[in-house]
Amino acid sequence: MSKVIWNADIDVYNADVIPLSVACNICRYLSVPDLVSFSHVSRNTYKAGNDPELWVSKFKAMGVWNKVARNNDGADGANSQSFSENSTSSSVNQKPGSLGSTARSIAALKDPLTCLDNVVVSRKHAKTQLLVIYKCLNPYYRDFVMNKAYDKLKIFEDFDTPEEQSKILRNLLKFNKIDTDEQSRSLALDKINALLEIFENALLRELDIHYDLEDYEVARRFVQILIDLENQQTLIEFFLQKVIFNNEKNEIFNLDSFNPEMYFVDSEMCHSAFDQLISSLADLFNQQSAIIDLIFPSSVPMMYKVCEELVANQLTELIMILIDFSKSKNLYLQAVPYIYDKITNDFIKLLHPSTNVGETYFQLVKELIDMLYESFAAEFMREELSYFRESCSRNIRDWNESLSKREAETTESILRHVKVETKDDFLTSFKKVFITSKSSNNKTEDDEQNYSEIQAKAKILSENIKSLDKMLSPQLVLESLNEAKISLYRLSRFQSFSIHSLKSDILATMQDIFINILDTISNEHLKPGFGKALTYLQTYNPNSPTYSESHNEAFSQPLVLFFELINVADLIIQMVDIFYKEEMLNRHIVKHENSILNPSLQNKKKLEALVDKYVADGLNIGIEILVNEIDGVYKTRLSPQDYCPRSDVNNVIGQTDAAQKALEILEENIDLLTGSADKSIVEVFQQEIAERFFQIVVKTVKQNTISVAGATNLISDLNSYNDFFASHIKSNKRMIMPLFQALKNIGSMYLISGDDAHAIGKLVSDLSKFNGIFGQEEIYEFVQRREDWPVIKRHVEKIMYGFGLADCKFM
């Protein structure tokens, strides 16, 4: 404190002389010695100068008020001023938190090197501790305030090791924080920082020398001093410059001499060269890790920084060169996942544990590699998906073209032999009679193969139909699925990617591969194949615009071929299903296995539904053609006299010719699909034929007049229908047989004599006889087909309704 003017008239006990708030404000600007003197001026200055918060604030300014340490405010009530510099010995053995802990702290403060290390967090003893610290450090601090030459500084007289010099300089930096004189504080701070810079440079030079000498124990000593000076960044930069950027030592990263061609030989990757590269890379990492473990403590993440530099910069450039070169060798899709697999599996397996990084070392390296590979993997995903789409489409397109080419060649071969009929044909034939030749009795090959245009069209159609079951290729689908498997395998190498967003993209791309092959099989193979097959089937259907009368075979042949095609499609579906289970489910590519959130499953179901639709379409076409043929039999072969014979003609009693022919057609076709289609499809086919045939018979009965004499023929026909289906339908009998049993009962109403109108009326009225198949109105339609209906109508209706129309009278 500058000179104090003492006024004997001042009443030091009068609180109004120097108000407490003024005294507190003055204390904030006083140095420690002046603060002690000022506290003796008056009662208020005493209170202000001994305020624990004032002294605690100085500890906080120096950054040594340890909040974690136990607060000792409750230790004892001794006034902080009762402690002197020599008052520690009697209290050394007291329990923590007592007076002894503070005493021991004060004893360690007495040492300039340790005085700031063991400050006890006690407000009561804050002033005592600070006065001791001030006495320790102020003599050394004064040298800097007085601007002494560096070689005259007291710190170099008392401390001669770099550890001690580092410690005292760090303590003086903290002590500088409580210098209340701005001018001296600034001067001292500049001097201390300048000396620290010189000191650090000297340490780095020593570190450089001992590192080059591989004297790692001494190097660790200097590293620790630099760490204590809180200069880790300078240390990290120095080491990276010394180790990482020295490509003379790291030949593997000397990219000017790096030859990527040695890694790709004969359009294949040279595995031995890549193995050597990975081994060299691991050796470099292990060498650096071993050195770092000898020099650096775990508090400085030096190996992390080395890995970061090696991977993010050096390794990235090397991999970029390899990947770019792979494109010129058409090995890009193979190289990208292969290299990733080598550096995330083989490379990491060769790494030794790192004490500097700890247990997370291997995961750390993996994450760094993933970060460097993110852009490569993202580009690869796009290229892989694009390549697969094009390759899959190209294979199927080539197959379709070969199929079309084969059909075109067949057509051309047949059309080559179409004879052109002209007016000279007769004269040419006439002349041939008079030509004598040894081969005159033999037809030439050309003669045998000459067709008319109609014959040629039939022949072309027939040949195309013969290949109907070859419209789909399981082998082609298998090859496409194998290509998909290869693509999925390449993508699966990235499934362990640590970057979540990219890992999600990888899984999505793998699903896209599967969905794409489903779409390709569906749109470019199944649909065209089935479309062509159904078109050929429709050529047999008179109701179709593609109907043709030129056929060399019965319809049963192409229908069987069509269902062989269905079997091929089922085989393809099974192949897809196996692929889905093995490649998509077992590899955990898809989530939500049975959910609408699973696009792979939903698209697989669409493919299955598509085949089911074509099965149904083929069945419908086959059934419709069969029904049309049978319907045509009744239209052309059933005579009106068959069910209503003339009395003057000898009529054959029994089954009609139309019924016999219809049953022949049914016999040929009812078991057509047995053995070539699933049991469920066979059942549907047979049931649909039976129901449609039933409708034809119903229509036929309603369109004919039936006499009592002709009823025998009708009943014979109806019995034969019932017997046919009873013997041919193995399942679903309960769905089919009631139809024909009801028809048999319908036939009975024509056999009853017209004289017994009562029996006819009772039969018509008893709905239970018809198994619920026919309603009252429809039964009434049947009975109207009796030849004698105009005669018996009134009597039958009277039985049915209780009166006849003739009984109605108008009032």
Written overview of the protein:
- This protein has 811 residues and is mainly α.
- The chain folds into four domains: 159 residues, no CATH class; 129 residues, no CATH class; 210 residues, Up-down Bundle (Glutathione S-transferase Yfyf (Class Pi), Chain A, domain 2); 135 residues, no CATH class.
- 66% of the residues lie in helices and 0% in strands.
- The chain is built from 30 helices and two strands.
- A two-stranded antiparallel ribbon has the order 1-2.
- Helix 13 runs parallel beside helix 15, helix 15 runs antiparallel to helix 19 and helix 26 runs antiparallel to helix 27.
- The longest helix is centred in the middle third of the chain and has 55 residues.
- The radius of gyration is 54 Å and the shape is elongated.
- It starts with 19 loop residues before the first helix and ends in a 10-residue tail after the last helix.
- The N terminus is likely disordered.
Strand-helix topology:
Blueprint lengths: L19 H8 L4 H7 L4 H7 L2 H11 L36 H11 L16 H20 L8 H5 L3 H14 L6 H31 L3 H13 L3 H12 L20 E2 L2 E2 L1 H25 L6 H27 L3 H19 L10 H55 L9 H9 L11 H5 L3 H14 L7 H19 L7 H39 L17 H30 L13 H39 L2 H4 L13 H13 L9 H25 L4 H21 L4 H19 L5 H9 L10 H8 L5 H13 L10
Antiparallel strand pairs: 1-2
List the main descriptive attributes of the protein structure presented here:
single chain; about 800 residues; mainly alpha; Glutathione S-transferase Yfyf (Class Pi), Chain A, domain 2; two-stranded antiparallel sheet; 30 helices; elongated
CATH class membership of the largest domain: Mainly Alpha
> What is the C-alpha radius of gyration, as a whole number of Å?
54 Å
CATH architecture of the largest domain: Up-down Bundle
The termini sit apart by: 145 Å
Number of strands: 2
**Strand order in space, largest sheet:** 1-2
The helix content is 55-70%
